[in-house]
Amino acid sequence: MKRASSLCAFGVLIATALLAGQAPLTWTAQQDHQNMKDQLGITALRPGPSGNAAAGTPNAANYDPAKANPFPDLPDPLTLRDGRRVTTPELWWDARRPEIVEDFEREIYGRVPKQVPDVSWHVTQTITTSIGGIPVIARQVVGHVDNSSYPAIAVDIQMAVVMPAATKKPVPFLVMFGNGAMPAAPPADAPPGPISSAQQLVSAGWGYASINTTSIQADNGAGLTRGIIGLVNRGQARKPDDWGSLRAWAWGASRALDYLITDAAIDPKHIGIEGVSRFGKAALVAAAFEPRFAMVLVGSSGEGGAKLHRRNFGEAVENLTGAGEYHWMAGNFLKYGAAASTFGSRTAGDLPVDSHELIALVAPRWVFISYGVPKKGDSHWLDHQGSYMATVAAGPVFRLLGVRDLGDTRNYRVATMPGVNVGLVSGELAWRQHDGGHEDRSNMTHFIEWAASLMTSPGRR
Length: 461
Known about the structure:
Blueprint: H1 2-21, H2 29-40, E1 42-45, H3 89-109, E2 119-131, E3 134-145, E4 156-164, E5 171-178, H4 197-203, E6 207-212, H5 227-232, H6 245-260, E7 266-276, H7 278-289, E8 295-299, H8 317-321, E9 338-341, H9 355-360, E10 366-371, H10 384-400, E11 429-433, H11 441-456
Parallel strand pairs: 5-6, 5-7, 7-8, 8-10, 10-11
Antiparallel strand pairs: 1-9, 2-3, 3-4, 4-6
Helix pairs in contact: 6-7
């Protein structure tokens, strides 16, 4: 028996050594996409709608509200699979929430592998500068992922950490998905522009970090055999329930959090996560799966973020299952765009969960859903109304856990957005559509004020 065990262990070592010596696969996104379809037995996917709404455009996206809800009934976040109602926080935490997490991991965003290498952080540069006339101390920090098991792929997470210079007590902090760049002084002859999110944060006494998503995982299908996903898979293709880029970026934010909570100048109880567009999707995913994030600002996230998958308005599930965006998601997500396969055809109506339940996974922590307006560039493609419906539908979970939702008492099927610049920001679940474009800079001050109110409310810290 002992000899058999030794031989088995030796075989594993040999297999590991062989994989470690293999070069990573070099595929195009189309090749990797086809490989996943082959694994799933999919022979045809429905094409995603075109964002061009001009008359006569083939397969144009729907922008008619009357046709927007082909699957009007959402999965109930407070009903267990066995039909029991969730009426206590204990039943939510012990039974229903794990069911929802499992569905999201298996079918939507993928699983983080159990054996992800450790990350070691070190500071490579420290400077004293100013943002909007406010003195700050900025550090360039790099998180090196241990790649001793597969040296062919190196992952070094790039992050800039910026703190007000005159801090006398631990400050609130916001991790922002971006490019990881250090703050730079604007050219002397540059005309004044909109006040940046960074300036708004440091003016309010917050610190912030910019984390470079591409240093964690590429934003394309060709990169899935590289980055942290490729490192863990030793340069080979994903399996259907492996993580996609959104979950990988969220994992990177969690590793950044590991570093940030060691900084005595940062208040560890009030660290948030933020992103816009695809990074808004990633920010919501990060907050849903990482309980140490106290709050999240979800900017213009659309399909795959706060927008309901079951809505037929603008971008659709089929866009996310196509070769241009599938890498954000788990491979299993392709099943819901299948027109022909070994298991038949599936649609968004077959998904076991929807985005209102992703929002609900953050409860009772704080969620601020932000959008702009189409005429300024935050296009109808994002389906602002579908995101509002999801936010309303998440409300019962927040209430069950003893915190406040939007305060909109209508059923999600008929709930309509408030006016532009009318914020529903009195609870732990908040909504505001600003009058700017595809950014959340125009809501940053409102987010800061909302978070500050929650921080100082009795019993809400």
